[in-house]
Each structure stands twice: as C-alpha cells, then as structure tokens.
UniProtKB/TrEMBL annotation:
Keywords: Repeat, TPR repeat. Residues 1-24 are annotated as: Disordered. The keyword Repeat applies. This is Tetratricopeptide repeat protein.
Length: 138
C-alpha cells in the first residue's frame, strides 16, 4: 500500500484537496444545483467540471452544466452541452426546449423554432406549446 505522504505529494502542494470518490461527486453535483438556484452559475460550472471529468457519461451532470452555462450567458458552451445531452437522449423535451432558448438568445430563430416544436411534440406543456407557435405561419 502506498505511503499517505506519497499520495499527498502526488496531489500537489495543497494537501487539503480531498481525493475524488463517488460521494464527493454526488456532493459536488448537489452543491452545483444549489449554486445555480442561488444564481451563481459560474460556481456551479466549476463544481460540475470535476464531476463530468470523473463521469463523462452522466447526462444529468451535463444537463445541469448546460443550464449553468446558459445562466452565465456562455451560449456556445451551453449549446454544445445541450446538443450532447440530445445525442444521448433525443426524446428529452426539456433539453430541446433549453437548446431552443439558447438559439433564440444567440439570434438563431430558425434553429430555435425547430427545437421548440420538438419539445412541444415530445411534451405538450403549455410553456412548450406557446414557444412552438404552431398556430403561426412560417
């Protein structure tokens, strides 16, 4: 077994940095949710970066990071994260809706309309239906 001092030396100068483990990742994910709710999206992104580095397949963490990017007005990273989520979960109505909002905010209304309509088709929530504007002519 490795000497604990070796582990500390390998981690760098700051010996107070805990080693990553699944519990740490869950704590960071939950803390990121709270930071986003408290309107600190950049703090949420920082926490989620390490969670996603440890679990790149975790769609929930990616969706939360996409929301945080959007809230921080980092539209291109938000777009990329929402698109990655949709590659994995093409029937995720919220991800379509949020991607549409991202396109809308970045001045791409044609792409926004497509995703608003997909969101509404997948989940006919009133908010999604209003945004889809099915009753308007193209």
């Amino acid at each position: 077994m490795a000497d604990p001092r070796e582990r500390t030396a390998r981690r760098g100068r700051d010996a107070t940095v805990p080693e990553r483990n699944p519990e740490t990742d869950v704590i960071d994910f939950r803390a990121a949710e709270h930071l986003l709710d408290a309107r600190d999206p950049r703090g949420a992104v920082k926490l989620l970066d390490s969670v996603i580095a440890a679990h790149p397949e975790n769609t929930a963490a990616r969706l939360l990071r996409a929301r945080a990017f959007f809230a921080a007005a980092q539209l291109r990273p938000a777009e990329l994260e929402f698109e990655l989520v949709l590659e994995r979960e093409p029937d995720n109505a919220f991800a379509h809706f949020a991607l549409a909002r991202t396109f809308e905010r970045s001045g791409n209304p044609e792409r926004a309309t497509r995703h608003f309509r997909l969101a509404a088709a997948l989940d006919p929530k009133p908010e999604y239906l209003r945004a889809a504007k099915f009753d308007e002519r193209d």
